[in-house]
């Protein structure tokens, strides 16, 4: 009898990760579908513009390289670079801001509606409850962002390799800005939304605070050039700071940019710069997440 009881399947406890992740996915399916539709629209636009490079090549072959780069035609370097910059603007920092906004709002609603009180009566620790939900949100947004970043990189590398872009800051931003760090910014947004939603516990203040904190952290990281401490070869190339803009920064859409830095990069610097920036942004995200867990511990001790 005792052997039969021991062999009988046990129902999953509420505190286990898989049931909690399933609950989170069921509750977040509506924002997930909305994000999916937005991602599909962006992806379709990137793919459509990618096939436009063939027209750019045909134009250059017909009018010559100088006319293609400095003339005025429907598919010249200026028009095609502008389209590529528009594609990148939708990816550079907007997914991070959406992630911050979504995570902050959903977390604040947990506290504001006191739904978390009901959840914590089911033998679930507060850290596990929120940790699984934040990880689920991060997984959703990251899973939608990675394919878009890959598509964009295919397009920009193709255009860069064929010398179809204009020369100058736009070319540098288009090539060097988007990559693994774009995905890391999404994780940063989730962490910022987790902290602000947990600390404020109110919907409307969190609507402002979550994206604002994400932007401020990114601005400090970019302005400080802290990523160059992990990418020393680039550090020796950069000279001076841009004096204009907020905090001495320029911007690529909503993403804070250090023009003096990006304009010194060469194709061989792409991966070291991206990986160093990614490591730094993920470190900042980890610190924000730890701060959110500390706030949870104080609220529920």
CA-based gyration radius: 23 Å
Overall pLDDT confidence: 86
Main sheet: which strands, in order across?
Answer: 1-2
Number of strands: 2
How big a fraction of the residues is strand?
under 5%
How would you characterize the overall build of this protein?
Keywords: Membrane, Transmembrane, Transmembrane helix. The chain crosses the membrane at residues 28-51, 89-108, 129-154, 174-196, 203-222, 275-296. It comes from Streptomyces bauhiniae. The protein is mainly α. The chain has one domain (27-220, 279-300). 74% of the residues lie in helices and 2% in strands. The chain contains 15 helices and two strands. Strands 1-2 form a two-stranded antiparallel sheet.
In a nutshell, what does this entry contain?
Keywords: Membrane, Transmembrane, Transmembrane helix. With 301 residues, this protein is mainly alpha-helical. It has helices at residues 2-7, 17-27, 29-51, 53-63, 65-70, 77-92, 94-112, 115-119, 126-161, 169-176, 180-200, 203-224, 232-235, 259-262, 270-300, and strands at residues 250-252, 255-257.
Please tag this protein with its features.
301 residues; ABC transporter permease; transmembrane helix; transmembrane; membrane
List the helices and strands and how they pair.
Blueprint (H helix, E strand, L loop, with lengths): L1 H6 L9 H11 L1 H23 L1 H11 L1 H6 L6 H16 L1 H19 L2 H5 L6 H36 L7 H8 L3 H21 L2 H22 L7 H4 L14 E3 L2 E3 L1 H4 L7 H31 L1
Antiparallel strand pairs: 1-2
Helix pairs in contact: 2-9, 3-6, 3-9, 6-9, 6-10, 7-9, 7-11, 7-12, 9-11, 11-12, 11-15
């Amino acid at each position: 009898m005792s052997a039969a009881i021991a062999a009988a399947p046990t129902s999953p406890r509420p505190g286990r990760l898989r049931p909690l992740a399933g609950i989170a996915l069921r509750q977040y399916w509506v924002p997930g579908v909305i994000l999916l539709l937005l991602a599909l629209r962006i992806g379709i636009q990137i793919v459509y513009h990618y096939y436009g490079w063939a027209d750019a090549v045909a134009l250059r072959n017909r009018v010559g390289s100088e006319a293609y780069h400095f003339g005025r035609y429907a598919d010249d370097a200026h028009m095609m670079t502008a389209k590529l910059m528009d594609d990148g603007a939708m990816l550079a920092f907007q997914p991070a801001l959406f992630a911050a906004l979504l995570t902050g709002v959903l977390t604040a609603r947990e506290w504001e509606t006191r739904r978390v009180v009901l959840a914590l009566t089911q033998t679930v620790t507060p850290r596990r409850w929120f940790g699984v939900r934040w990880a689920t949100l991060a997984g959703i947004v990251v899973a939608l962002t990675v394919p878009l970043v890959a598509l964009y990189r295919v397009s920009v590398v193709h255009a860069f390799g064929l010398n179809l872009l204009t020369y100058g800051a736009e070319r540098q931003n288009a090539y060097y800005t988007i990559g693994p760090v774009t995905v890391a910014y999404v994780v940063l947004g989730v962490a910022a939304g987790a902290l602000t939603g947990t600390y404020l516990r109110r919907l409307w203040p969190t609507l402002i605070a979550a994206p604002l904190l994400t932007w401020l952290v990114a601005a400090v990281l970019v302005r400080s050039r802290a990523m160059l401490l992990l990418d020393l070869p680039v550090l020796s190339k950069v000279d001076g700071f841009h004096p204009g803009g907020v905090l001495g920064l320029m911007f690529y859409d909503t993403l804070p940019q250090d023009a003096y830095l990006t304009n010194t990069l060469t194709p061989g610097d792409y991966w070291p710069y991206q990986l160093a920036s990614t490591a730094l942004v993920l470190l900042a995200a980890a610190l924000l997440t730890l701060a959110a867990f500390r706030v949870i511990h104080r609220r529920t001790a």
